[in-house]
Amino acid sequence: MSCETSYKLVEIDGIKPPSTAPAFRGTDCHEILAPYARWCAQKRVKADFAYLDSLLSSATEEVVGIMETCRDNIEIDWENFFAAEISMGLDGDFQPTYSYDHDGKPLPMDPLWDFVTRSNKVPAYCAILDTIYLMPGGRVARIRDYKSHPRPFSADTFQGKLYSLMLFMHIPELNEIEFGLQFIRYANKTETHKYYRSDVPQMMEDIRRERNRQMDIHEKVLYDQPLRTHGGSHCVYCPCVLDPIHIPCPIAQLNPMTNLSPADRLNWRLVHDVMNRTNNKAMQDYVEGSGQDINSQDANGKHYTFGPVEKEKTTYPLFADNGSGGFDMPIVDALLDWQNAYPEDLQPKRRDQKPWFLNLRIGSTQLKSYLKAKKRELIDNRIKDLATVEVKVENRITRDAEVDDGAGEEYREWDGSGDDEIQF
Length: 424
What we know:
The protein has a 6-stranded mixed β-sheet with strand order 2-1-5-6-7-8. A two-stranded antiparallel sheet has the order 3-4. The chain has a two-stranded antiparallel sheet with strand order 9-10. It is globular, with a radius of gyration of 28 Å. The two termini are 48 Å apart. By secondary structure, the protein is of the alpha+beta class. Helix 5 (158-170) packs across helix 6 (200-222). A hairpin with a 5-residue loop joins strand 11 and strand 12 (327-328). It folds into 4 domains: 4-218, no CATH class; 229-259, no CATH class; 262-306, no CATH class; 320-386, no CATH class. 36% of the residues lie in helices and 14% in strands.
């Protein structure tokens, strides 16, 4: 949907992109996790590594590696388990009906939905939900969608909105749904977003709008109207990029995804980073040695200067000497005074938010440097138990340790951070 040309090629012309390793990886992970969830619910256990190992007997090496790494982090809430890998469909009026599989073949409604009033009309929206948990009382549900992506992302997605609406319409008693993306490559990395029954009208409007966009593309193709073409991450699966000789991209000369291969771009990045570091070091040495800034002017008359620039760094001390041999906490006191004077300011504006006080943190860098002393082991362990650990994943170039030639510190990390910022 990001590129109308790519959508036409794949969904209308039927030129399916070849199956890739990531596609096989995702399919294999789902085929393992669904029966694993059902098994644990049936056995009334949170985990069963022996059974998981039996499911991995025919999996690829990459999938085995992922599952063995993450299996300690996948716990099945068997007490509230409702369903796994269940197909759902809604008609054009968002009423429950049958669905289609990935090949476009009709799928009858699962017997699990026998209690649901169905329309039996042609489905306009279909989905397969990985895992559903229904909390006691039947008013709250959780949806968990497993992702093997190498980089986590927000759960506030079209997929989450569609899946949650599916469940709202199949179980009218639900008032709240927490949609979560569990990134199985990482420990305790789950992104969540909550939807409420009051959100349903807006969810319908948003999903219907995307459906209308989809139908507009079909109408353009039917009447031979020009399609919009956009480059981006979606190009990775586009037939134009996968087979550029037989299916040329309409914007090939402007599309960066078609100009160089991924490996060529990595090599260009490696060369550029080395040149950038060398150039920055030479400019820094000149400024420090001569005491003069470096000045330049472009063809438009704009002036540029490289040299020392003041940069403020603000910190808020946790403790202050009270002059009597003890310590005060002026920042904390000021915050608590504010809470007492203006309690309404701490009330979240949305139900899925939390008071902004709970977002305040003490950075770990300085704290760790003092707690690592052996004599502070007890307080170190106590504070570790109180810490909030957040996993953040960034794209970074790494070297194979087995072929490391010891070239030096400048080759250790290639994330590009700090390359353009010189410290004096």
